[in-house]
Amino acid sequence: MPGGRRRKLQLSKIYSFRCGRSSFQEDHSQIGGPGFSRVVYCNEADSFESIIRNYMDNYVRTTKYTLITFFPKSLFEQFRRVANFYFLVSGSLTFTPLAPYSSVSAIIPLIIVIGATMVKEGIEDWQRKEQDVEVNYRKVRVHRNGGIFNYKEWKNLRVGDIVKVGKDEFFPADLLLLSSSYEDGVCYVETMNLDGETNLKLKQAVEITSSLYRDWMFGDFKAVVKCEDPNANLYSFVGSMEFEENQYPLSPQQLLLRGSKLRNTDYIYGAVIFTGHDTKVMQNSTDPPSKRSRIEKKMDHIIYLLFLILLSLSFIGSIFFGIWTNEDHQNGEMKRWYLRPDNSTFLFDPRRPVMAAVYHFLASLMLYGYFIPISLYVSIEVVKVLQSIFINQDIHMYYEETDRPAYARTSNLNEELGMVNTILSDKTGTLTCNSMEFVKCSIAGTAYGHAFTEIEGALARTKSNGYNDNELPKVVRSSSVKGYNFSDKRIENSSWVMEKHADMIQKFFRLLALCHTAIPEVDEATGKVLYEAESPDEAAFVNAARELGFELHKRTQTSISLHELDLVSCEKVERVYQLLNVLEFNSTRKRMSVIIKDEEGKLLILCKGADSVMFERLAKSSGKFEEDTREHVNMYADAGLRTLILGYRELEDEEYRNFSKKLNEVKNSISADRDSLVDGVIEEIEKDLILLGATAVEDKLQNGVPDCINKLAQAGIKIWVLTGDKMETAINIGFACSLLRQGMKQIIITLDTPEIQVLERAGERPAIIKASKESIHHLITRGKLQIDRSLEAFALIIDGKSLTYALDDDMKDEFLLLAIRCSSVICCRSSPKQKALVTRLVKAGTRKTTLAIGDGANDVGMLQEADIGVGISGVEGMQAVMSSDIAIAQFQYLERLLLVHGHWCYRRISTMICYFFYKNITFGFTLFLYEAHSLFSALPAYDDWFLSLYNVFFTSLPVVALGVFDQDVSSRFCLQFPRLYQEGVQNILFSWTRILSRMFNGFFSAVSVFFLCTTALELQAFNQDGQIADRSILGPIMYTCIVWIVNLQIALSISYFTMIQHLFIWGSIAFWYLFLLAYGAISPGLSTNAYEVFAEALDPSPTFWVTTLFVVVTTLIPYFACSAIQLRFFPTYHETIQ
C-alpha cells in the first residue's frame, strides 16, 4: 500500500466509532417485502436487470410550473379566489347583448390585475428554474469502463453508477459510501443544506470495500445492494450488500445524502442508490402547512357579504324593472311611449316581463360588480411584500455577532404579528444561549464549584425586593476557556489527589474525557488541542476534563488516548483505552454510553444521562452517595443549571461477549424496527451502575430576555415555555427571565407523589393510569378553584408525565380552561411531540393567534402547528429557521417584531382593507342610485373606461401608500406603551362594528354625492349657452366628486404623512383631470360621450367647480365631525398617546 495513503491516515482528524464486524448468521431480513424492494446492481447501470427496474432519473425539478402548465395552472390558482372568478364570469357576459358596458373596458382591468399576479408568480418560478438548471448541469466523475472515470452531468446519473466525489463537492445523489481517501473508509460530511446543522458528521464505509481507494480498482467491481424503498426519513437506512458471495449489513453510517458536502476528505467513491425525486432530501421537500391570517379569512366573509348586497340590489331592481316593463304596454296604451315598447328588443319586451326581469338581473350583476374591489388582492400582496422588506431591513433587529438580520420568510402573516394572544417558547437556545459552561459538579456525595451564575444573579435580583445590586454576589468568570467556568481549590491544580475520594474523582473526570463523540484537533499555529463536538454540552465536558488534568489527546477508530494525572506518581501520563462500542444518545434513551478496555484489560461501561433515567439504573450499593447526589442535583436545578448523572460498571468477559453477539444480531436485522431492537439490547447492559456523581452546566440567558418578556406581558400576551428541563430548573429560569414574578401564585401539576410512586414500583400499569388521571383531574379542578377565589396572578407549572394525561381527549379541555386563566405556563420535561400537541390545543381551543418560537429541530412540529412560527438562528443549526415563517437571531427581537412591526402591520392592513370596501361601496352604490333614478334601465352613470380605471389608477395608489408607510405612533411609543398592542389582540380595528361603520359611511357618501349632484344640476342651465346637464355631464361631475372624496378621506385617516403619500393622493386626483382631458381629446368613436367633455363643457362652467367643492365638503363634514367628537370625548388608547 502506498506510503502516502498510510501517512494520510495518521494525519487524519476523522475517526469512526462503529466497531465490530458484522455477519448474517441470523438474518431477520425483510428485503423483498413491502417497503424493502429496491435492488441496486452496483457498477452495472447498463445491465438488463437495472434497466427493467425503470428507476427514476436524477433530474430534479422544484418549480411549481412548466412551460406547458404555467398558463392553465396559474390561471386556475388565480380564479380559485371567489372575487376573481366573479370578474371572469361578468367579463365573459360582457360579450353578450346583456352587457351594460363594453367588453374591452371590463376585461382589460381583469387582465392587468391577473397578469400582475401571474408575472410575480412567473418571476419567482423562473428563479427556481435557474437554480434547478444550475444543479442539474453540475458535473461529477462517473466510472465508465476499465477503471476510467469521466465527467458526467448530474441529471444523467443512473442508479448503480459508481461516482467519485472530491473535497468540498456536493453529493449528486444518495450514495452508498464504498471507500475514501482514508484507509479506514471514513469521511467528514456537512449537512447544512439538509438539517441546517453546521457541525460535521462522520460516515464510514463497510470494511470490505474500504480498501478500494484507486480508480483502477473499480474496473471489475460488482456488488448487489438490497435496501428500503425511497422514503423521507433522513436518519434511517436499512439494507444489505452482497459482495464476493458474502452479505454485509448497511446502516445510515454508509449513506451519503444528496445535498450534503464532502469536507476534510480528499475524495470518496460511492454507488448511486437513490436518484432525483427518490432521494431523501427531495422526499422531504414538501410544502410547509398553508397558513392564512385571520384578517384574510375574514376578508373572504366581507366579500361574501358584498356579494349578498350585490345580489339583493340586482334582485330588487329586477323586480321593479319587471313591473314597470309589464305596465309599459297594456290594452294598446304605451305608458312610456318614448321607449317604443311596441318595437323593443327582447331585453325590454313588455310581452315577456319575467324574462326581461331575468335579463335585467344578469345585467345588474355585471353593473354592480364595482362593489367588489378588483385590485384588492394584488394591492394587499404588494403591500405585504413591502412590509416584509421593512422588517428584513430593520437595523434594530440585526445581530452583529452572527451577522444575521431578521428575515420574513413569508409575507402572508404580517398582520398576524399584531394579533398574537399566546407565545409558546422553547427554552434552550431560545431564552438561553445554548452556550454551555461547566460550573459545578457533585462527586461521591461532595459538591464542588463556587461559581455564581448569571441565572442565580438574575434570580437574586428578582427576589431582592429593592436591595442594592452591590449587596448581591457578582458573576465572575474564572477562566477564559470556552465552556469552562469552574472554580474550586479542592479540585483545581491537581489538588483533587488529596481529597478523601480521589479515586472516585479520577474516575469521574476520566469518564468525562472518554464518554463522548468529540474529535480532538491540534491547532498547528499554537499546538493546542481543540475539540469538534456534536453539542455544546459535550464540548463543555471535554474542555472541563482537560482543564482538570484529563486531556483527550488522540482518537482513532478503535482507541482513545488521554494525557491524565496519575494518582500514584502525581505526574501526567499517556493512557490508551480501547474503544469497543459507542452507545449513542437519543431523545428516547436520554443517555449515552461507551464500552472500553483499559490498559489493565478491564472491560468498563461508562454512562452519563438525565437523572430521570439514570437513578433507576444504579446498583443498590450506590445508596450511600445517592441521597446526597439527589440533593445536589436539586440544588443545581434550583440555580437553573442543567444536570447529568455519571455512572460506570465493570463488565465480565462473558457478559460482554453475549452482549456483543446480541448487538450484532439485531444490527444485522434488516427490518423497520431495528432501532428499537438495538435499544432493547443496550438496555440490558446499562444497569447496576456505580454512581460517580453529577455535572452541572450553565446555559446563559440571552441578552434582553427578562426585559422582553416583561414588555410582552405588559402588552397582555400570555407566554408559555415548553422545555425538557427539570421542574425546579424551569421554575428558577422562569423567575430569572421575568416569566414568573414575585407575588405570582403557582399551580403545580405533577405525578411525583408517594401514591403514584408506590404504584409505579408495583408495576401495575392499569392502576397507574387510573390513579394518574384521577390525580391530574383533581389538581386541575383544585387549580380552577384557587383562581376563582383569588384576584392575584397565577402561573401554571406541569411536568411531561402529567402533560401526557392532561392532553387526553377527555381532559384536554379542562386543562386548557385552567391554563388560559393563568398569566404564565411552564411545561417541563416535554417531548417534541408534546410541544406540537400543546400548540395545537392552544390554537384550536382559544381560536386566537398563537406564535411558537424555537431554535432546534425538536421545535419544528411546534412552529408548523402555530399560526406563526418564529425560528431562532442559533447554534442548533437552521432546521427551525427553515421551517419557520419569520427568522430572528435573538429572542429579545421578538419585542420589536410584535410590538412595533406587528402593531403597524395590523393597523395598516386593517385600515387599508376597510378603506377599500368604503371606496368601492361609495362608487358602486352611485351606480345603483342612478339606475333607480333612470327606472332601472341598466344604464351606467359613467363612461366604460371611467368604470374600469377607478380601482386601477384613480384610487389604488393612496391606499397602497397607507398600507406601507402609515404609523399611528412612532416605534419609540410602541415600545413605551405596550398596551397599544391590545388593539390587535382584541381585533378592534377589524371588528364587524368598524367594518360595517365603514360600509355605512360608503353608502352615506354615495347618497350624498348622487342627490347633491342631481339636485344642483336639475332645472337650470349648466353653461352660458343655456344647455342643461345630461348623463354625459352628470357622470363626470359625480365621478370627480367621488375621486376627491375617497382620496381626501384617506388623507384624513393617515396619521403619518410622507412625501410618497402626498404624491399618491394629490397625484391620483390630478391624474383624473389629466385623463379626462386626454381621453376627451381622442376620436368620438373611442371616447363616445366623454369627447371633449372636460375642455368644452366642464372646465368653462363655474357650476362644475362650485358643485364639486360643495359636494366634497358637505360629504366629508359628517365624517370629520364624528372623528372630532370621538377624538374629544371617546379617544382610543393610541389617540390618547398621540
Automatic annotation (TrEMBL):
EC numbers on record: 7.6.2.1
Catalysed transformations (reactions): ATP + H2O + phospholipidSide 1 = ADP + phosphate + phospholipidSide 2
Location of the P-type ATPase N-terminal domain: 40-107
Gene Ontology CC entries for this record: plasma membrane
Molecular function terms from GO: ATP binding; ATP hydrolysis activity; ATPase-coupled intramembrane lipid transporter activity; magnesium ion binding
Entries under InterPro entries matching the protein: ATPase_P-typ_cyto_dom_N, ATPase_P-typ_P_site, ATPase_P-typ_TM_dom_sf, ATPase_P-typ_transduc_dom_A_sf, HAD-like_sf, HAD_sf, P-type_ATPase_IV, P-type_ATPase_N
PROSITE patterns recorded: ATPASE_E1_E2
Active site per UniProt: D426 (4-aspartylphosphate intermediate)
GO term, biological process aspect, one: phospholipid translocation
Signal peptide positions on this chain: none
TM region positions: 98-119, 302-324, 357-378, 916-939, 945-965, 999-1017, 1037-1056, 1063-1082, 1102-1121
Protein name: Phospholipid-transporting ATPase
Organism for this UniProt entry: Trapa natans (Water chestnut)
